[in-house]
Automatic annotation (TrEMBL), chain A:
Gene3D superfamilies: P-loop containing nucleotide triphosphate hydrolases (3.40.50.300). Keywords: ATP-binding, Nucleotide-binding, Transport. PANTHER family: ABC TRANSPORTER RELATED, ABC TRANSPORTER, ATP-BINDING PROTEIN. Belongs to the ABC transporter superfamily. GO terms for molecular function: ATP binding; ATP hydrolysis activity. It comes from the Bacteria. The keyword Transport applies. This is ABC-2 type transport system ATP-binding protein. PROSITE patterns: ABC_TRANSPORTER_1, ABC_TRANSPORTER_2. SUPFAM superfamilies: P-loop containing nucleoside triphosphate hydrolases.
UniProtKB/TrEMBL annotation, chain B:
GO terms for molecular function: ABC-type transporter activity. It comes from the Bacteria. This is ABC-2 type transport system permease protein. One of its GO terms (cellular component) is plasma membrane. Keywords: Membrane, Transmembrane, Transmembrane helix. The chain crosses the membrane at residues 21-42, 73-93, 124-145, 157-175, 182-202, 229-252. Pfam families: ABC2_membrane_2.
């Protein structure tokens, strides 16, 4: 069941086409990542889905079961959430809760619940002006959830955070995944791989690759062998290029990364190679690449 | 309607916390007191500054009560409007530029309610400040000079308030149109001055205009009756205000909320 379906969605600004006829289908109960380099059109796409920007072409349809204003069913965290600095965290959540139609009492309860969820219960009476970046981000997530949305849209939720804040938010997203659908944008592939089920990779306003994470991984991930030696391996490794399992190689001084076709044959042959033993190997490791190569390839185009 | 009230309450709370509800009324009260007091003590004030030259052999007449009240309104129309414009020139632009607006309008909030709540709040603050300031003016006029019939005062004040609402609506409209606060302030003050100048220069062609309202108020203070065609200008002002609010809402709805990031 698709929560949101966008068909040939287009948005042109005066001189540039930020989003160029993309098709998106966001499934219910799934965490979807919109991945792409900076300037790929991710924010514009998300803003169109929320209704903050009007598309210049194409259509957006929300699940028919949820009729009326689709803003009712969406929670949104912009890339740079800005709050009223003079309000306290609790006041802000109550304000937004009431705007979403909760009664004062219900909004208060919901605010308490969310403040505990995002671990801000202690700072709830503090003015938001005095919050740290990570706290603001967590409050941003809390306000996106205030109306129990069917779909939570997060624009670059972890990009501006330090490693600790980043970890906190990713853990929070994993928790949220169980109860609601998430659509988030990121330019960091690793984050997308960590929490999402579906991935859309965008570049220059177009969706270049889409699919389930597992599906993309089997399709694009290449088994790789990493070898580190004491001696320079560059003469030896030239010979490897002729092997039938060989695909690609990268040599950085004494660190050799070989992408292979068939991991088992490659491993057997390499380990049996007497020359390699003479190079005094320090490490021999079978690794799986992330989608990094794919992403870089797509982003470069 | 409940949502409108929540938005309205937030505006009030914000203005309380940034002290707009304190200093704007204080400005109006100061000018409300100053006008009758300085008029009454003018001879003594001149004396203390060295007096008039011998040749100036005329008496400074103590102005009448209605005259003082009219002069107070004159002060409000200059300093008062300036203060209000400076306080509210960013009423829409501020939230738009800072990005707080985005997070509210992505919630199921009516754009019209968002805008009219802001308008209602700034009008309430302006009118309250005016009533406070003008009450002081009336009181001191009563104590120092002469009392003006209460009915005249109230009628005149109501007519003047309408003119104030016109200015507040101008701020709202320009604030929805332009992101620059300077532009909002400049256009609002400029247009207000132009309208009132035109109205005093050619009262016949401008008989419908909101700029006529203050002269009607002056005349009510004196005689209890507004000038010629007062109802025409009242009706036109009401119409202009509602049309401007309508245009502001229309523009606000159709203007892009989120800007294209680079």
């Amino acid at each position: 069941m698709n929560l949101i379906t966008a068909e040939s969605l287009t948005r042109a600004f005066q001189s540039t086409v930020a989003v160029d006829g993309i098709n998106l289908s966001i499934k219910e109960g799934v965490c979807t990542a919109l991945l792409g380099p900076n300037g790929a059109g991710k924010t514009t796409t998300l803003n169109m889905l929320t209704g903050l920007i009007k598309p210049t072409g194409g259509s957006i349809a929300f699940d028919e079961r949820y009729h009326g204003d689709r803003r009712q069913y969406i929670g949104y965290l912009p890339q740079f959430p800005k709050f009223y600095g003079w309000m306290s965290g609790q006041e802000y959540l109550m304000y937004t809760g009431q705007l979403c139609g909760l009664t004062k009492k219900a909004a208060n309860e919901r605010a308490e619940e969310l403040l505990t969820l995002v671990d801000l219960a202690e700072a709830k009476r503090k003015r938001i002006g005095g919050y740290s970046g990570g706290m603001k981000q967590r409050l941003g997530i809390a306000q996106a959830l205030v109306n129990n949305p069917k779909l939570v849209i997060l624009d670059e939720p972890v990009s501006a955070l330090d490693p600790i804040g980043r970890r906190e938010v990713l853990e929070l997203m994993k928790k949220l995944k169980k109860t609601t659908s998430i659509l988030f944008s990121t330019h960091v592939l690793h984050d997308a791989e960590e929490v999402s089920d579906d991935i859309f990779i965008m570049n220059r306003g177009k969706v270049v690759i889409e699919g389930g994470l597992a599906e993309l991984q089997t399709k694009y991930q290449k088994p790789t062998i990493y070898i580190e030696t004491e001696e320079e391996p560059d003469i030896w490794c030239r010979a490897l290029k002729k092997k039938e399992w060989f695909r690609h190689m990268h040599l950085d001084k004494k660190q050799l990364t070989i992408t292979v076709e068939n991991i088992n044959t490659a491993r057997e042959e390499l380990l049996a190679d007497a020359t390699l033993h003479k190079l005094k190997p320090l490490r021999f490791e079978v690794v799986r690449t992330t989608l990094e190569d794919l992403f870089m390839e797509v982003a470069k185009k | 309607m409940r949502q409108w009230f929540i938005l309205f309450k937030k505006e009030c709370l914000e203005s309380v916390r940034n002290f707009k509800w304190l200093w704007i009324p204080i400005v109006f009260i100061l000018f409300g007191i100053m006008q009758p007091v300085t008029s009454y003590y003018l001879p003594q004030i001149l004396e203390s500054f060295g007096g008039l030259p011998e040749e100036a052999l005329f008496d400074i007449p103590v102005p009448s009560g209605p005259q003082i009240l009219a002069e107070t309104l004159g002060q409000f129309s200059q300093i008062g409007y300036l203060v209000l414009v400076l306080a509210f020139m960013g009423v829409i632009a501020e939230e738009k530029n800072s990005g707080t607006q985005l997070m509210i309008l992505v919630k199921p909030v009516s754009y019209g309610a968002y805008l009219t709540a802001k308008w209602a709040h700034m009008s309430l603050l302006a009118v309250t400040s005016f009533i406070l300031g003008f009450s002081f003016a009336v009181y001191y006029t009563h104590v120092l000079i002469e009392s003006v019939p209460a009915a005249h005062v109230i009628k005149g004040a109501v007519v003047y308030i309408l003119g104030m609402l016109f200015v507040m609506t101008l701020i709202l409209l320009f604030s929805t149109l332009f992101n620059s606060r300077a532009a909002v302030a400049f256009l609002t003050l400029g247009l207000t001055i132009v309208v009132s100048l035109l109205s005093s220069l050619m009262p016949n062609t401008m008989r419908w205009s909101p700029g006529m309202l203050s002269s009607h108020a002056y005349s009510i203070f004196g005689t209890g009756e507004g000038g010629e065609a007062m109802w025409l200008s009242i009706a036109c002002t009401l119409l202009i205000i509602s049309v401007m609010v309508g245009i502001a809402v229309y523009i606000f709805r159709n203007k892009e909320t989120a800007s294209h990031s680079s």
